Amino acid sequence: MRVGEIQAKSILSKSQVYDYAVNAYVGCAHGCVYCYAAFMKRFTGHREKWGEFVDVKINAPELLAAEVRKKKVGRVWISGVTDAYQPLERRYMLTKKCLEMLTDNDWPFIVQTKSDLVLRDIGILRRAKNSEVCFTITTADEKIRKIFEPGASPVARRIEALAKLRAEGIRTSAMIAPVLPGAERLPEELKGKVESVLIDRLNYHYADRAYKKYKMQWAMEDGFFALKGEELKKAFEREGIICEVLF
């Protein structure tokens, strides 16, 4: 893993999903083979494979402190093209410092992650006036998870983390994107642990080689996503969970 420390020029960027996004890291050690953020390599100059480099914006908290005082308050997505709680966060604590800054200034935010390291900051999340934690969980099958998300937290730990957050009164949600084989067990697993779920299909071709290697090309087809999207939506709604299919 190549780790570099860099000085960013800004940290609070406009987002097409929420009002703003904060990405304190460039690259992600989780190394998910389907990750749309792999396009970042086009702009970073890295020759390493996706998942084998991370640049750390060591001045992110200082930048955010200045920017939240200048910009109009809006909902912040943490993060958009990296995981805010990837392993390096244990050392650098940039996400923690940014969450403290947003909370102290009454800015709303949503954290999207695949790591139960988010539980470390449960005190900040509980104190925030308008916060949410969304876990990306693409399958309930740990064997499938290891193929597609080799560096991320095991599925059981993510689901347990959601339960703990929900028990603390923190708003929780899940994103099943892309839908992978084994996702059909998630409605039962997530019952009582999330308020809502978003479902999306595979939209990029970064993972084609993995699908072919493990003879799962059938799980890349339009018919698979159409069927699973419909089945999952009905199953989540039966459990009283709001569900939106994005395709």
Please, could you describe this protein's structure?
- It is globular and about 50 Å long.
- The protein is built from 10 helices and 11 strands.
- It has one domain: pyruvate-formate lyase- activating enzyme (Alpha-Beta Horseshoe), CATH 3.80.30.
- The longest helix has 17 residues, at 222-238.
- The strands form 2 sheets. An 8-stranded mixed β-sheet has the order 2-3-6-7-8-9-10-11.
- Helix 2 packs parallel to helix 4.
- With 247 residues, it is an alpha/beta fold.
- The model has no long low-confidence stretch (mean pLDDT 96).
- The protein has helices at residues 41-44, 60-70, 89-92, 94-104, 122-127, 142-148, 155-167, 186-190, 208-213, 222-238, and strands spanning 2-6, 12-14, 20-22, 25-26, 53-57, 76-78, 109-113, 131-136, 171-176, 196-199, 242-245.
Key descriptive features of the protein:
eight-stranded mixed beta sheet; 247 residues; pyruvate-formate lyase- activating enzyme; three-stranded mixed beta sheet; 11 strands; alpha/beta
As a percent range, the share of strand residues is 15-25%
Helix/strand order: EEEEHEHEHHEHEHHEHEHHE
The separation of the N and C termini measures: 35 Å
Q: What fraction, in percent, of the residue positions are helical?
A: 25-40%
How large, in whole angstroms, is the Cα Rg?
18 Å
Strand order of the largest sheet: 2-3-6-7-8-9-10-11
The top level CATH class name: Alpha Beta
Indicate the CATH topology. pyruvate-formate lyase- activating enzyme
Q: Which ranges are low-confidence, i.e. pLDDT below 50, for 5 or more consecutive residues?
A: none
- Looking at how many chains there are and whether they match, the oligomeric state comes to single chain
**Global outline:** globular
**Structural class computed from helices and strand pairing:** alpha/beta
Mean of pLDDT: 96
Count the domains.
Answer: 1
